[in-house]
Every structure is written in C-alpha cells, then in structure tokens.
Structure prediction request, 101 residues.
Amino acid sequence: MDLRDLAKRFEALDKSFELLKEENLSLRAENASLKEELKKHQTKKNSNNSSIPPSQDENRPKKNQSLRKPSGKKPGGQKGREGKTLEMTATPDKIVEPRLF
Prediction:
C-alpha cells in the first residue's frame, strides 16, 4: 500500500467514525427518553401490590413521626377555660375498701 491508499482509507474510517459517533449520540438520547417513559408507567412496589411487609412502605410515617400538625397552643388548659374538678363529698354514697389478693 502506498501513502495515497492509506490516506483514502483513513478518510473513509474517519467518516464512518463520525457517523457512528452521531448514531451513538442519537441512540443514547432515545434510550434516555425511553427510560423516562418507562418510569412513568412503572408502579412502585408496596405492601398493597407485592409481598413486602408494610413496615417497608416508602410513604409510611416513622415511629417517632406524628401525622398531627402542631396547633401552636401549649399543652394543658388554655387561658380563660373554666375548670371542672370532681370534689370530695362529706357524705359519700358508698365506701369501698381496697382488697389485696
């Protein structure tokens, strides 16, 4: 082979390389879009549609996580509340002695 044949062959290989590179890029883009579309149609597994236990569900609240929203009030009776207490009476209806077993 002489130098001209090598140059022609190099140009042909260079062209095919560029074509393959473009095809690779387009296939990668198509692959990414198909993966995104597949994610939309896949249902995530949870305890309702598979055999995993409910404790492994993704949206399950943690043990120390309450579903109640804070009201902003302090615990206990609020100001202005009229309290009611059972008071002891001087004449009870019945007296019950506690028994030990």
In short: The CA atoms of residues 75 and 90 lie 33 Å apart. The chain is about 40% helix and 0% strand. The helical segments are 3-41.
